[in-house]
Amino acid sequence: MNNIGIDISKHKLDCLWLKDPQLNKVKTKVFKNTTDEHQRLGRWLLDQIQALGAAMRKLVQICFGVINHQNEYYPLLKN
């Protein structure tokens, strides 16, 4: 679940995305309270959700790869 708070004032929108409630990890962003900035806010929110989705997909791929092949997982190490 994504927890996003938006504090709306006359001149700006203060946004906070709670990424990890247990560790209190947050990401903040401030936008002007204009029509153009509202669209930027929408794109920013989508970007945050897509980044989270990509990380979850990678985690699922790693887990199922390990389970299906019954091999230990060894990440590729770059020198």
Describe this structure in words.
With 79 residues, the protein is α+β, with helices and mostly antiparallel strands. It has one domain (3-69). The protein has one helix and three strands. The chain has a three-stranded antiparallel beta sheet with strand order 1-2-3, covered by helices on one side. Strand 1 (3-8) and strand 2 form a beta hairpin. The protein is flat, with a radius of gyration of 18 Å. The mean pLDDT is 75.
In short, what is this structure?
With 79 residues, this protein is α+β, with helices and mostly antiparallel strands. It has 1 helix and 3 strands; from the N terminus they run βββα.
So what's the overall shape? flat
The ordered H/E elements are: EEEH
| Radius of gyration from CA coordinates | 18 Å
**Runs with pLDDT <50, length 5+?**
none
Main sheet: which strands, in order across? 1-2-3
Number of strands: 3
What profile does the largest beta sheet have? 3 strands, antiparallel
Termini separation: 37 Å
What share of the residues does DSSP label as strand, in percent?
25-35%
Number of domains: 1
Helix content: 40-55%
How many helices? The count is 1
> Would you tell me the structural class of the helices and strands?
alpha+beta
Mean pLDDT: 75
